[in-house]
Each structure stands twice: as structure tokens, then as C-alpha cells.
Description:
By secondary structure, this protein is an alpha+beta fold. The protein has helices at about 30-35, 60-75, 75-85; strands at about 5-15, 20-25, 50-60.
Amino acid sequence: MTIMNLTEYIYILSLQDGSCYVNHTASVSQEIMRHTKGEISATSGKDPQLVWVEEWNNLETLQKRVASLSELSKESPKDLLHILQARLPFGGYHWG
């Protein structure tokens, strides 16, 4: 089996209905623009907000991580967000 090396990003959006959307992309900014414009049916009209990004360089492990996060997101979106928040440095992440 060949394992492809690349740079992809897992991203998580928090949605207005309390759910989360988990996916991956090579360009987070382009993907967020598509969500904001309503081009992605799963998030259209749900005010998607970016809450998490992870960088991955191995497709096989990326797919396993996406599956794991997606499962937790479906079971309990709040628990998923709490788990991710706990991984941030004390005081949270400061943009800029």
C-alpha cells in the first residue's frame, strides 16, 4: 500500500443549530469561503464558524482522524468542542 504525503487540513465548523461539521481540505481559506457563500449544502444557512484546524501530512492518518472527529461530532458536538478547547494553551489561542 502506498501512503501519500501531502499537506491537508482538517477543519471543524460550529453551526447555528448546535452541530459541528468536520471535513478536510488543501486550502482552508477557500473552503471557508465556500461555506460562507452557502455553496456547501450541509452548512448552508447555518452560520458556519471556524473553530478548529489541524495540519496533516499523511492521507491515511488524516482520514482516520476525520472519521474519529466526525463520529464524536455526531454523538456529542459539545463534547467535541470541549475536548478540542482543552488542547489549547492556557488562556486559549490568540489570533494575530
